[in-house]
Amino acid sequence: MNKNIYSVFIAILLTMTSTQAQAQGSISNDYSFGDGLAIHGGVGFLALKDEYISSEIYSGTVPYFAASWSRQNETYGHRLWLEYEYTAALRNHNISAEITQLRLGVAFMYPVGKTNVLSKDVDVLFGPASELFFHYRSENIADGGESVANAYSFALLFSGGMKLEALCPLNESFQLHAMAQTSLLSFGGRMPNVAGIEEGEKNESAFKLLTVFAGFDASGEIGCSYKLYRSVLIAADYRFELTRISAWDFFISGNDNFIVSAAYDF
After folding, report:
1. Residue 114 zone, left/alpha/beta (φ > 0; ψ -120 to 50; rest)
2. In 94-173, at which residue ranges do the beta strands (DSSP E only) sit?
3. Mean pLDDT of all residues belonging to the chain
């Protein structure tokens, strides 16, 4: 799944190779930034490895729900989003786990240029982004026989980074879009090793400031939107998310999501 996000990053960056500089005093009206409230729903496939509990990979399908709000100003646009994923049946053979993942983020997007792809204008936006990622896991110990000491786990990343968007209107109603976002610096948290504490080992701090090498959070998205009416849009997207933490017991979570959305643009 790691190849997916790298492909998204590369594809968006390639669109910038012929970018023409444009004034940042105002945002182009050629594209729809998506002002207003949107509701998103879909299904994803999640693969997870959390060495606090097990060195095995757990995987399975996960329902995806999210809400977002966007607003375009004269010189920039900003986005807010909240994502929720939950399943009680993430599995490794006959062992299962219950997981909850949340993402809460904000981004400020500035127009940085315009390029041309297959004779279509593409507006490029770039800006700072911040996201809170929270993961909670509970082993179904009746199935797996795990000890109580390592039957629960949590991971936390509060990250600051950058976000890149490419918006390509094909006509007045139909638009293609792509996005890539990555963290640069994070404040991370993990559950202390309870088993180690019981054996007399030094109690490691549960929270740390992390560089991108020790705590990494990234996502990529590609999709299309269609304006049904003057203020109502529908969209279909593929979204990939990857979170990796190595400052404590190794943790990595990656998921592919297929999403449909409805938005009221006001």
Report:
1. beta
2. 95-117, 120-139, 152-169
3. 83
Tokens standing for residue 216: 């990494």
- Angle among Cα 241, 80, 174 to the nearest 5 degrees reads 80
The average pLDDT across 122-144 equals 86
pLDDT tens digits for 57-110? Answer: 999 999 999 999 998 888 889 999 999 999 998 999 888 899 999 999 999 999
For 62-76, write each residue's pLDDT tens digit.
999 999 999 888 888
State both tokens at 129. 């982004």
State the pLDDT at residue 193: 65
- CA 73 to CA 93: how far, in whole Å? 51
Local structure of 5: helix, strand or coil: helix
Residue whose token pair is 């790691």: 2
Are residues 79 and 113 in contact, defined by beta-carbon separation less than 8 angstroms?
Answer: no
Q: Could you give the CA distance from residue 177 to residue 222 in angstroms, rounded to a whole number?
A: 6
Type of residue found at 240: F
Tokens 């938005």 sit at which residue?
Answer: 263
Beta strand 36-50 with 120-139 is unpaired
- CA dist 59 and 1 (Å) reads 12
Residue 192 · residue 201 · CB < 8 Å: no
- Above 60 in pLDDT, residue 1? no
Backbone angles phi, psi at 137, to 5 degrees: -135, 140
**Whole-angstrom Cα distance, residue 48 to residue 120?**
39
